[in-house]
Records
---
Amino acid sequence: SDDSTEKSLLEKDHAYTWHHISAYNEKSPPMIWESAKGAWVTDHEGNRYLDGMSGLWSVNVGYGREEIAQAAYDQMKKLAYVPMTQSHKPAIELAEKINELLDDEYKIFYSNSGSDANEVAFKLARQYHQQNGDPSRYKFISRYRAYHGSSMGALAATGQALRKYKYEPLAPGFLHVAPPDNYRRPEGMTVEDYNRHCAEEIEQKIIWEQLETIAAVIMEPLITGGGILIPHRIYVEKVQEICKRHGVLLIIDEVICGFGRTGKAFGHQHFGIKPDIVTMAKGLTSAYLPLSVTAIRKEIYDRFDTGDDNSHFRHVNTFGGNPAACAVALKNLEIMDEEDLFDRATELGDRLLKELKCLEDHPFVGDVRGFGFLLGIELVADKEKKEPVLNGYMTKIMAECKGNGLLVGRNGDTVAGFNNVLTLCPPLSCTDEDLDFIIAVIKKVINGNTTFSQSEERLDGGQECGENLENWSI
Ligand code: PMP
C-alpha cells in the first residue's frame, strides 16, 4: 500500500479507536496488524515480527491455522447459536475433553473471557457456602501483583493498585497477601522457609478475618502478569492444605498457565494439587474465538444439583459456550495433541531459560526465571539493592527488540514501580529457528545496553515507573 493509505489508516485508528493502557504515543503508534502465520505477525507496511508474547499470552498453537478457521466456518454454517439453557455437541465434547485434561470429575460452565470465568467462580463460591449453611463466608483472598481480570469482581481480586484506584469502589470482600517473590526474599532466608512463610500469611489472614468469613483463595499456579513469580512447590501444597483445613475453596486461575504453557495441560498439575474451581480462557481456543471455562469439582456442584431451581446457579451469559468457539477449542486441543505441544513447551522453555540464564552476568539483569515456555527477565539498576530500572530503560529495550523484529512483553508490580520484568511467552508451535531468533535478539539487545544514565532515561520518554506503563502484555 502507498504512503497515504498507511498514514490515513493510522490517522483513522487514532481518530476512531481507543486502545487500552498505554497513552497514544506518536513516536511509537499502535501497530496495525495485517496477517500472521506461525509465530510471525506482519503489519500493514509488510514488516514482520516474531510475536514473543503470543498476542496476550494466548495464541498457543500459533497463527494462521487453516483447520481452526475451517472448524469455525463449518460450525457457523451448521448451527451458529444455542442459548446456555440448552446444549450442543461441541460444548459436550469439549467439556468431556477438559475433564480428561483435568484428570478428575469437574462440571464445566462456559463464558467468554478470563474475567467472566473468574466472576463465575466468585459467585459460585459464595452460593456454595450459603447452601452449605455458611452464609458468612463471602470474602476472597488473592495476592498482590496478581492479575485476574478487568470487571468489578475480577479487578477487585487483582493485586495491582494502579489498575484499580480510579475505578473504586470495586466489589467488596477482596483481601490480599504478598506472593512469594523468591528473587526479593529476605536475605538469609532459604527459599523453602520463605515459601512456607508466605503460605502461612494466608492462614494468618484467614484467622484474623474471623475464620469462617473466607469463601475462597484465588491464585494462579505462578504469577504471570505480575512479573513471572514462580513459587516453590512447598507454597502451593501448603496453600491447598490451609484451604482444606479451614473449609476455604481453592480457585486456580489457569487463564495464562493452562493448555500447555507450562508443559502440562494445567500449571497446577506440576504441584500435585486438586483445586475446587479452575478458570481458563486464552489458550483454550488459542484466542481464535472468545471462550472461557469455569470448572467446578463434582462435590461442589452436587450442592447445586438438588433438583430445586432455587438452589441452582443463577447466571446468564448470552454468548457463553458459543458453538463455533467450542468447535474451535476442540480443534485447537486436537492440534496440541497431534503436535505434542505440551512436551514441546517444556523443551522450548528449557532451552530458552538455559540460553538466557547467562544474562545474569549483565550489570542490569537481576534475575532470569522461567517455567515451561514462559520467561521473565528482571532488570535492575542496582544489583545489590535490586532497585528496578526506570521506565525509559524498559521502553528502550522493548523498542530495540521490536526494531530487531521481536515483540516482547513487560510486566511487574505497577504499584511499587517494579514494572521491570521483560516477559516472553511465545507460541508453543515455535520452530527451532524461531527460538534461535528470540534468543539472538534478546542477547543482542540486552548486551548492547550496558550503560544507564538517569537523565537519558527521562529524555527517553519515560516518567519514573508509573503512569506511562506501556504494559501491553496484560
Ligand atoms: N486471569 C489472568 C491470569 C489473566 O492473565 C487474564 C488476562 N490477561 C485474565 C484473568 C482476564 O482475562 P480476559 O482478559 O480474557 O478477561
---
Amino acid sequence: MSTERVINFGAGPSALPLSVLEEAQKGLVNFDGTGIGIAEISHRSKEFQAFLDEFEQNIRTQLDVPPTHRILFTQGGGTGQFSAVVLNLLARHRLLHPTATPEETVLDYVVTGSWSKKAAEEARRLAAGHATVRTVVDSRVYSKDGKAYDNIPPHAEFAFSEDPALIYYCENETVDGVEFSHDPQSPASFPFHLLKRDTLVPLVADYSSSFMCRPIPRLADHAVIYAGAQKNIGPAGLTILIVRQDCIVDVDAAARLGATPVPLSLSYKILADSGSLYNTPAVLPIYMSGLVVRRMKENGGLPYYEEMNRRKAQKLYAIVHEGEQKGVFRRKVQQGSESWMNAVFEVLGEGAEKKFLEGAEKEGMKGLKGHRSVSSHALLCIRVSLYNAITEEEVDKLIAYMTRFLGES
Ligand code: PLP
C-alpha cells in the first residue's frame, strides 16, 4: 500500500488542503486544548459553540451574507435539501395563500442537468396532490443533439409562473459540467431580471459543487441557497444552508391549514431556533470545514479563490480547445456555459479515453473518469474537477500531461 498522496481530481468527495488535513489530525486527538478529540467532544460544549460561531462568521463575511439571511448547518446532503426545500416552501406558500388549490400552488424548476432533473423529480413525488411542478425550461431542448444537458438556455425561454411557491435552479451541474455564467452580460447568466421585483421571490439555488469557489451573484435575492460540504470545503456529512428569514416558517401552523407535515429534522425553523443544534450535528465535518474556511480567510478570501479558479479553468479549457482543433478531444458543453468546477470532455478514438486515464494515473492523477450518464458512446468521458483545494501547480501538471498526450496522438 502506498502512503504517497496523488492528485485527486474527483468530483466529490474531493481533495482537501493537506495543511488542513494535518491540522485536523491534531484536533482529532485534542480539540482546541480541551484534551478531548473533536469526534468525542459534546456539541454543547463552549469550545465547540465558539468554533461553530467562528465558522458561521467566516462564511457570512466571505460570501457577504446580509442580516436578512440565516446560515444554518444540517445533514442529509443536497439530496436531503431536494426534499426539505419543497416542504418548507410549500408550508410558506400555504401560510401566505391558505386557500390555494393544488393547481394554484406551483413549483417552478429550471432543469439544466442531471441534478436539477433529480430535484424536480423529488418535488413531483412530494407535491403530488398538493401542488403542481412545472419545468420552466429544460436545456436538452437547446442542445446540439436534443438529448444532452450541454447548455444554459436563452433568457427568453425562462417563463416563470406568476406567484410560484419556489423557483429552483442548480448553479453548477456537477455531472454535466454546465454552469450559469457569473457575468451578468452573458447569455448564459441566470436571468435575475425576469424575476418579479415587487415581492420576496422564493428563489432556490443548489450550490453543492460551487459553494465558496467565488462570490454568489445576487445572493440577497435568493430565498434558499444550499450546498453539501464535500466538494469545496470539507468532508461529506455537512450541509450548509443560507435561508432568508421569511422562509423560516412555522411548518406546524401551515400543516393545520392543510400543508404537508414537515419532519422536525427538515424544518428550517427548528434548525434556526436551535442555532443548528436541535439534534447532534456532524461535529467532525463541521470542524474540518471550519478549518478550511478559516484557511480561506487567511489566504485572502473569495477574491483570491475566484482569481485562482478563473485561471485554472481558463488554462484547462484552452488545452481542451487545442485538442479539439487537432481532433483528439471534444468538449461536451457549449461555449459560455462551461463549468469552472467540473470540465467535461471526450477523448476521441477507439480506446483513447482508457489510454488517457491510465496515463494520467501512472503520473499520480486520479478521479478523472466522467459520469457514465454523460457519455455518448461506450466509454466514459473525462471530468476534471477543479475545486478550491486543487492548486494551480496541480492543474499545470495535468495540462503538461495533456500536451504530451496531444503530441503522441
Ligand atoms: N446537487 C449537486 C449539484 C451535486 O453535485 C450533488 C452531489 O454530487 C447533489 C446535489 C447531491 O448531493 P448529496 O450527495 O450531498 O446528497
